[in-house]
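USER: If only I could read C-alpha cells as easily as an amino acid sequence. It would mean a lot if you studied the pair and described how this chain folds. Here is the record:
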Amino acid sequence: MSYLVIYNDFTTNSKKLSASTKADYRHTFKAVVYLCAMLSTTPVFAEDEVYNFNISAGDMTAALNKLAETANVELNYPASVANELKSNGLRGNYTAEQALQQLLKGSGLNYRLSGGNSITIERQLEPQSNVPTAMAVVTVTGKAVNDATDPYNSDYSLPNASTATKTDTPIMETPFSVQVVPKQVLEDTQSVRSTDALDYVSGMYRASGSGDYLDWSTRRGFNNFPVGDYRDGMPLPLGDFIVGGRDLANTEKVEVLKGPASLLYGMAVPGGVVNYETKKPLSTPYYSLQQQFGSYDFYRTTVDATGPINDDKSLLYRFNLAYKDTNSFRDMVNSERVFVAPTVTWNISPSTQVNFEMEYDTGHVVFDRGIPAIGNRPANLPRSRFLGEANPPTKYETLMLGINWSHAFNDNWTFNHRFNMVHAGVDQIATFPTLIDPTTVNRFGAHSTYNIHDNAMYFNSINLTGHFSTLGLKHTLLLGGDYYRKSLDNLIANFFGSDVNIYNPIYLGSSIADGAPVLNLDSQNDWFGLYLQDQIKLPFNLNMLAGFRYDSAESSLTINNGTPTRNSRQDSLTPRGGLVWQPVPELSLYGSYTENFSGINGGGLGGSILPPESAQQWELGMKTELFDKRFLATLAWFDLTKQNVAVFNGNTGFSEAIGEARSAGLELDVKGEILPGWNVISAYAYTPDATTTRGNANEVGQRFQGVPRHGGSLFTSYELQAGILQGLKFGGGVIVRSSQHTDSNTNTAILPGYSTVNLLTSYSWKVNGSKLTTQLNVNNLLDKPYYPASFGRDSIEVGAPRTFMGSVRVEY
C-alpha cells in the first residue's frame, strides 16, 4: 500500500480514535515512514545524470511539475501539501536529487523515495530522538539562483555589484547608475575585445582602438586616458600595460560605474569606471574547452578549468588560457596572442582566505590608425585600405603577479589587502598619418622599445569593512587606502616619416626599425590615497551613502638623461554622497553628487605646475527590479562638468589650465529575463549637451569628439525550454549610433550615423554527462559600411564588414 493511501486512510478514519490512540498511531506511523525510507534500496535518481533546470520563481505546484518534466521523475503528493506555497525557482545544472533539495529548501516540505521512478512530497515531520533520519546528507554541488560564479548561470541581470561601493551591495540600494554585463552576455555575443562588452551599456562608446592595438572608450563624453580600466579594482593604465587590449578569457563579468569614482579609485577619469571581475577558483570541478573560428582566418582557443587541489578543499585552483591568431579585413593587419591566467585560493580557515594570481600576456599586433577625412567626411577608400606600416609588427609582453587576502574578525568586521605587480615590455612601430593634400598623407612614425624589467607598476590597497548599528540605524562602514607607483625606465625611440598616396600606398618595410635612437625617457608617477565611506539604512526605506577621500600625487620625467622635471605634490579632498528611497522593494528613486580629482596635469609657462583637473556630477534616477530580481532597468539623468582642462596657448607655446567641458544627458539601461528562456539587454543614451564651454576660440561651443547625440543597442535571445529541440537558442540585436565629430574644434569632420544588425543561433545538448554547445554569430548582417570611432580627422577607424563567428564548446 502506498504512503499516500496509508496517509489518507489514517487521516480519514482517525476521527473514530481517542486522542491518546491517535498520538500512538502518529508516533508509530512516523517510525514506519522513516524505517521504510532506510530500508528502501530501489534507486529513484540516476546519480550521475545532470539536467539543466530553468524553473521560474512562483507557484510551488508549477515548479514541482516543471522539475518532474525535466528530470523525468514521478512526484506524488496531495494538492493541499503545496497549496499557497511559493518557490524561489531554480537555474543551473543539477542532478534530480540536488534540484529537489534546492527547490524545497525553506518550504516546509520534504521528499521521500517511493521506489521505481517515484518520489513522494510531504510536510516535514519532526523526527523523534530515537528515530533515525530518513536520508543521509547529500552534498549539493549546484549553485544558488543568481550566483554569478556559477559557470552555468544564464542570467542577463545580476542584482548585486561591488564596483560602486567596494562592498557587495544591491544595485537597487546604490545611488549611482551601475551596470553589469554578465558572462552569459559575453558568451552569447562572443565578445573577444574588452570594448565588445561595452556596446550594450548606455553612454559607453568605442574610441579609436587602432584595431587590436588598444581598447579605448568614451564614457559620458570623456575618454579613459590616462587610466584605462580596472581589473578587480586594480588600475590598468592605457598604452604601456594593455597593448593588444584586454583578453576576456578569465573575465566573469564587467561592471560599469557611471560618472566620477575618485572616492574609491583615486585616479579614475570623470566619465566612469569599467571594472573587469575575474573568474575565481571554485570548490566544484568545472572544465571547459572552446574553439572559435571566423571570417578573415580568425581562430581562438580557450580553456577554463577549476576545482579543488586537495581532499578537504582548502586549496582551490582556476586556470584560464586563450590563444588567438587572426588576419583582418584591413590589408597587412594581423595579430596573435597567448594569454595564461592561473589562480590559487588557500582557505586557511573559515575566516581567512589567500588568493595567488598571475596573468601572462604576449603577442603581436599592427598599429592601424584607419583612414583620413577629405572635407568633412571620411575619404572614399576601400574598407581594406591600410595607410600605416605593418612590418615589423608591434610585439608586447606583460606579466602580472598578485596576492590578495582577507580575514573576518567576526561576522561584522572584515579586513582585506591586495598587492599587484605588473611588468610590461614593448617593441612597437606606430605610424600617424596626416593628410597634406587630397591624395597624400604624411606618415610620421616612431619605433620605440622598453624592456619588461624596466617598465613596472605596483599597486597596494587595504580595506576594513564593518557592519554595526547606532541608534537603530544599520551601517556598512568602509575604511581604506591605496598606493600606486608606475615607473618607466629607459624608453628609447627613433622616428621616421614618409609620404604615401592614399589610393596607391607603397610601404617602407622592416628598414624603418633600423634608425639610431634619438630619445631616451624615464618617468615615475606616485599616487597615495585614503578614503572613508558609510552606507546607512535609514527609516522609511531610505538608504544613504556618504564619504570622502584624500589624495596626494606627484610625478617626474627625465629626457635624454637630463635633469629630472619634478611636479610638486598635488593634494585633494574629494567628497561624494547619495540617497536612495525604495517606496516598494521593486522601485528605487535616487540622487547623488560626486567629485573627481585627476592628479598631475602637466607643466605650464616658466615650468609652473598646472592645477589638477577636477570634475563634479549631479545625477538623478530611478530603478526597477522585477521577476524575482531577474530583470533590472535604470533611468538616469546626469550633469557632469570638468574644469582645469589644459589648453595650448599658441602665443606663449605653453599650456594653460583654463579649459572647461560639460556633458549632460539621459540614459536608459534594461536587462534581464522577460519570460523563461527569453533574455534581453538594451541601452539608450541621449546626450544633447557635450561641448567645450571654455578654451581656445575654435573649441568653445564645439561638440566633443566621438560622442553621438543618440546611441542605442539591443540584444535578445530565446532558448527553448522543453521538447525535442530543448537547448536551441536563437536571437540577435542591433547597435545604433547617430553622427559623431572627429575633433572637438572647428576643424572637425563628421562620421555618419550607422546601425549594425547582429544574429545568434546556438544549440546545447548532453553528451555522456558533458554539455556540448555549438554557436554561430553573424555581425553586421547587412554589410553596411560604417566608422565607429576616430582619433582626429586623420585617423578614422573603419568598421568591419559582415563577419561570421562560429564556436564549439564542451563543458563538464
Observations:
- The radius of gyration is 30 Å.
- The longest strand covers residues 473-501.
- The domain at 276-510+520-811 is CATH 2.40.170.20 (Maltoporin; Chain A).
- The longest helix spans residues 19-39.
